[in-house]
Amino acid sequence: MKTGQKLVLTIKRLGINGEGIGYYKRKITFVKGALPGEVIVAKVTKVHPKYLEASLVKIEKPSQDRVEPVDKYDVGGIELEHLAYPAQLAFKEDVIRQALEKFKPKGYQDYELRPTLGMDHPYAYRNKAAFQVRKTKSGQVIAGLYQEGSHRLVDLPTFSSQMPLTMKIMRTLVDLLAKWQVPLYQERQHTGILKTIIVRESVAKQNAQVVLVTRTSKFPQLNNLVADIKSQLPEVVSIMQNINPQKTSLLWGEQTLKIYGQDYLEERLGEVEFRLSARAFFQLNPSQTKVLYDQVKQALDLQADESLIDAYCGVGTIGLYVAPAAKAVYGVDIIPEAIEDARQNAALSNRSNVNYEVGAAEKVIPAWVKQGVKPDALVVDPPRTGLDAQLIKTILQVKPAKFVYVSCNPSTLARDLVALSKVYQVDYIQSVDMFPQTARVEAVVKLSKR
């Protein structure tokens, strides 16, 4: 088998990243853009000992679920746009099933996997855009995302998953950067000033924050740029400058300065008010976040005499959302700024039954228990890496009667359930589509003590 060789394949299913999976002489072959049921011609691009990677050359027999994508860009965030939305929802349920079959937690064959909760209109949902800005050889200012697996920047004059206001602001800024000839970052030489533009929209207030990420604190033409933003984009209520001097793929530097307006954005989720600092994490899809948190609320079914521990609490979103039903909520996170924001958000929303502490959940929870806190319920919402192994041990020692796991990665969820299922049974897994047109899925897992 050599690169460049052409194969005829029948695609059997989609892999966890949304790529088509076929078999050539029993060797698994991944083909980006191919769909289950299709007969295709593919060209081998990489040969690995146990699998092949191939590019799609021709579709001999298309899937009934193939649709014309709205966006025609080769970037991440739209990898399933060629798949009809009902089939995307079914795929997201199947991804969880695949992960369970791989890790085999106790009783997994009998888990109730509920159909994925999707959107009525699965576009224009992202409240935040972080686009790199560069100048082409011909002198054109472009803003967008990197082509997958490369450092070639793809200009995005439109992007259907972004909220319209974020794109309006982004494209106006592109014009203003050209007008004022702002020196843009050049990656190879590590010269120039402006690297990235981050726009975040508040749905509740219908306004936005702009963060300009620069290589140095020096910012030529900044005053002219800000004056034009104020006159042309009245929706922008906050302009910040983040300084990232490193030659790195990391978006943010350590220092953030206020240039104009508020130093935060105000957002609302149900009855909860949030103040979001430039770097504060907040879900990218506000309408589906409410769907997700309503599922968490339902799964926890908190009573007036019960206390909840919210591990990986971030800026307090889940705990504050469910707090009115509980006696007390205890939130813990390792990021001090997040806990600061959580305390502020609690005050904004008049939540007096919440307590927040900075630290690792696996250390803070036992300390709380020693102080007499009786955790009747636990909610965890870890990053894609899943639960810390030590935290799993802590959970199995403390054994709260009610337990809800919010996962953004089916693989680490299934891995964690291997240990957790020794003490807990999985009542059901409810998948929620937070990122339509992508292969990503969130899940709310309701567990109860065996």
TrEMBL record:
It comes from the Bacteria. The active site is at residue 408. InterPro entries: MeTrfase_TrmA_AS, MeTrfase_TrmA_CS, NA-bd_OB-fold, SAM-dependent_MTases_sf, TRAM_dom, U5_MeTrfase_fam. GO terms for biological process: rRNA base methylation. It holds the Pfam family tRNA_U5-meth_tr. Residues 1-58 form the TRAM domain. S-adenosyl-L-methionine binds at residues 283, 312, 333, 381. Keywords: Methyltransferase, S-adenosyl-L-methionine, Transferase. One of its GO terms (molecular function) is rRNA (uridine-C5-)-methyltransferase activity. PANTHER family: PTHR11061:SF45, RNA M5U METHYLTRANSFERASE. Belongs to the class I-like SAM-binding methyltransferase superfamily. RNA M5U methyltransferase family. This is tRNA (Uracil-5-)-methyltransferase.
